[in-house]
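Q: Give me a protein?
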Amino acid sequence: MTIPDGLTTANTCNGKNTSPAISWQNVPPGTAELAIFAMSVKPVDGKLYFDWALAGVDPNLSELKPGEVPNGAVLGRNGAGQNGYSLCPAGSAAETYIFSVYALPDSLSAKPGFDPLALRKQATRASEEVGLAAATFQG
């Protein structure tokens, strides 16, 4: 998995707050759907903080353009309690985020506004195939 352009101000709430372009390859045959998560590496109040959660992504895709939510995909709640992407780094210090793509053998049938922590736990149990990328916003 790669984030070809990295994270820029356009990907934060100080800019357009659009998800970055991401790409992946080698989706295993028989994959029913992909699930994508973005999380800050720094916990908030001792908990994982999800900046983006997307399920039901067509396994025939190999990339998303900036801000793209593909047809049939479902957005989960982010750490701010909203459905969708939102990356708001605190202060001007550099902050690192982990992006992951799970190849799922069966559909998880996520509904809009799903709990990203619960779905990530399901995805982790269901899949042995995950792509990871780290990206740092320099502030």
